[in-house]
Design a protein that fits this description.
The protein is an alpha/beta fold. It is 37% helix and 14% strand.
């Protein structure tokens, strides 16, 4: 009886080890990131079988309230990069860019991201990495705006703002106006 119990335990251990061999490796391959609409910014991992997929036929409107501070002046603002990710998420699901009505409104600690290269360089001693990102967002149809009150708060002249960025009265009024027009409010 002892021998059969030992054999059963031995067989169980062998089966357990064999099953473990078929389990996923401890260090599965990293997900493949893609940039379906905005190359080099806002990486996404396409998930075609995930729940809650956007409709390819619907029009989506969102105002992104971008307030992330500039933590590393040599890298694009993380709030703006998140807007690029939103565009790429919808594009990865097959939503045409023409169905995305997205607006990025920068203010508060993110305001300096909209400076032209000369004034950004004077402030941070590096070229403005946000210029290319803003250009790519615009090519994808995203409106990029900056709060005129935030410019004044930071003593930034309007002439210092990147020409691809629109100066608005205030991020406060932008949120109300876009909300009244049916835009979802997305805080960054």
């Amino acid at each position: 009886m002892k021998t059969s119990a030992i054999k059963a335990l031995g067989l169980g251990a062998v089966l357990a080890l064999a099953a473990a061999g078929f389990a996923a490796p401890a260090h599965a391959a990293a997900p493949k990131w893609s940039y379906p609409a905005i190359k080099g910014f806002g990486p996404v991992h396409p998930l075609p079988d995930a729940a809650m997929q956007p409709s390819k036929d619907k029009v989506y409107k969102a105002m992104f309230d971008v307030t992330k501070p500039i933590t590393d002046p040599s890298k694009p603002n993380s709030g703006l990069d998140h807007v690029a990710r939103a565009v790429n998420v919808f594009a990865s699901a097959g939503v045409p860019l023409s169905h995305l009505h997205f607006v990025a409104v920068l203010h508060g600690p993110s305001t300096a991201a909209v400076l032209d290269n000369d004034h950004y360089r004077a402030k941070y001693n590096v070229d403005n990495p946000n210029i290319k990102l803003i250009s790519e967002l615009k090519k994808a149809g995203v409106k990029v705006e900056v709060c005129g009150q935030a410019l004044a708060d930071n003593d930034f002249q309007h002439a210092w703002v990147n020409k691809e960025v629109t100066i608005t009265l205030s991020a406060l009024s932008d949120a109300v106006i876009y909300g009244d027009e049916g835009y979802a409010f997305v805080q960054q």
